[in-house]
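Would you mind writing out the residues of a protein together with its fold in token form for me to study?
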Amino acid sequence: MPASTRRVQVAPAQNGAERSHKEPSHPRHELRTSRCVKYTMFFKNMFFLLCGVFVGAIGIIALQEKGKLHGQFDGLFLDPAAIMLSVGIVIFVVSFCGALGALRENKCLLRFFYACLILIILLQLSIGLAAYFAKNTIKGKIDNVFQKAIVEYQDDPDLQSLIDYIQFELKCCGSTEPKDWNSNPYFKCNNESISGTSDIGSACSVPHSCCSTDKLNRMCGFGVFTKKGEIEGREKKIYTTGCLEALETWFKDHVMYAGIVCGVLLVLQAISVKLAFRMISDIDEIIKYRDR
């Protein structure tokens, strides 16, 4: 006679036991990070990431046009395109880590993100304090940079545009005085100038951005330091204030606006650091609960 089979029926779990399996005693909303913090961080960093891509792309295109992406790295420190590319890369990397760290709730990326922001904040504060307590030293550094830019004026179109813009807007000429342009090989007043003798070409001249009148004439600054230019009254044709003095005056006139912009920027960065700390804290709480 074949052995009879016996069916075993499992009794349904009690309501209390079933609820204990389905619903943890810990509140459900505490098992995940704050959605508000998470997506605020994500979208804010995505915005800055796109800004970084845009700035970096402009820098790459400008460097490509000048052939500096093929081993020609001379003068990159003063090159506006190289500066834009560097700023774009920094913004992209920091924002990418912040966005991905928030989306994936990755503590390592979030720590890297807030560490970079703290370094940037400290750097900004250091620059501000240095600008206040070491004015003369900073003026000397800016003077050196501007003097070097004057020498390389004709060799870099982007640098040329930047200097012209500064002199147009600030109504200045040269670093400390218009005669600073004598250090440029195209504009200097001697027989060794690239354009030839001092009475032809662009020798004994200044760029058209130095002209206080007739700005549309790109040759308005030619020959202002010759005897003929002195007779015609070069003080009436070009700006006589150096750009260092004009820049200092501009900062004094706009110090309140600069302070507001810097303050808002620091507040936004501090908020980002706070959000990153909050998210890391939420992740730690979740890990502790799951370990229990």
Notes: The chain is about 60% helix and 0% strand.
